[in-house]
Amino acid sequence: MWREVIEISRPKNVVLAALTVPLGAHLSLAEAWDMQAIGLVALQTICVMFFIGAGNVFNDISDYSIDKLSKPQKPITSGRITISGAKKTGYIFAALSALLMLVGIFLVDEPIPFAIVWLSAAGLMVTYDFGPKTKNSGLVGNVAISLMVGAVIIYGAATVSKIKTPLVLYAAIVAFFANLAREIVKDCEDIETDTGRNTLPMRIGLMNARATAYVFVLLSMVFLGLAHLHGPFEYHHIVFHAPAIFLLFSLNGPLFRGEDYKAQQQIRFGMLLGLIAFAAQVSIL
Q: Which of 144, 159, 174 delimits the end of a domain?
């Protein structure tokens, strides 16, 4: 049972996403880490892991009818865990995340912004899978998921009461646009099995959706540049982002050829490299 619980939470996604909590804290603190900050960030990283795990569980429950045909090996569709058992798992994860957030309210210096970020992300998650089920509305659902991705970075800064740090906001916006592009490309990839959804590729066609995704990739690059033009870095320090920029700009090839899986994985890796470069610059400079 524990194996299925871990699998349904998608541990790889949970860990990768939760690492942006310490990233957000690091971008705002730079070298000013202390034991209190380390403890707070560790606690809220676990909080976010439970939060994302809950979202992944509820998403699998919502996608049961689709996954039954396209992904029969998943824990619910394979019968290794029942829908009832999955719901209990999701509720437990959500409750643990809420509990850790409440603990954080009593520990952080600025609890109101901290709580607002968590509650906003929770609202996005509820409306995505439960009602009005924005996941079925195509682009609206893509925006909701991408807002949650950016919110995790901001949550890291809020944990150490540095939510207004400009660099954190730039990093969150870069992550938002890059992830929005990835979500659209994933919808292109799943167009044959996404029954009951009104995704962007279904509405405007695959090539137009891929072109839209590329525009969002370029917008992420614009805000990456602004972080160096108006942020704490010198503009020539953008060389730290060279690998991410290369990966993201070169997406036009696989997108034009319709290689959606390759493209969405390339966006994911490029976004990860870009966020690592932000952290590296703060550490070095």
A: 159
For residues 141-165, give the mean pLDDT: 93
Per the CB < 8 A criterion, the answer to whether 149 and 176 are in contact is yes
CB 146 within 8 Å of CB 232: no
Tokens 């394979």 belong to which residue? 78
- What was the pLDDT predicted at 218? 93
Query: Position of tokens 């590296």?
Result: 280
Structurally, the chain folds into a number of domains equal to: 2
Query: For residue 213, what are the domain limits?
Result: 165-285
Q: How much is the mean pLDDT over the chain?
A: 88
Asked whether the CA dihedral 278, 283, 284, 285 is positive or negative, the reply is positive
Rounded distance between C-alpha atoms, residue 86 and residue 81, angstroms: 7
Interatomic CA distance for residues 113 and 117, integer angstroms:
6
Q: Is 70 exposed, middle or buried (0-12, 13-18, 19+ CB in 10 A)?
A: middle
Look at the block and give the residue holding tokens 């996941």. Answer: 135
Global pTM value: 0.91
Q: Which two tokens stand for residue 129?
A: 């899978």
Long-range contacts of 67-73 (CB under 8 A, 24+ apart): 69/193, 70/190, 70/193
Q: Do 216 and 280 fall within a single domain?
A: yes
Rounded Cα distance, 90 and 259, in Å: 33
The two tokens of residue 29 are: 């603190």
Query: Cα separation of 96 and 9, whole Å?
Result: 14
Nearest to 169 by CA among 154, 147, 149: 154
pLDDT attached to residue 157: 94
- pLDDT tens sequence across 62-121: 877 777 767 777 878 877 888 888 889 999 999 999 999 999 999 999 999 999 999 999
CATH of the domain at 31: 1.10.357.140
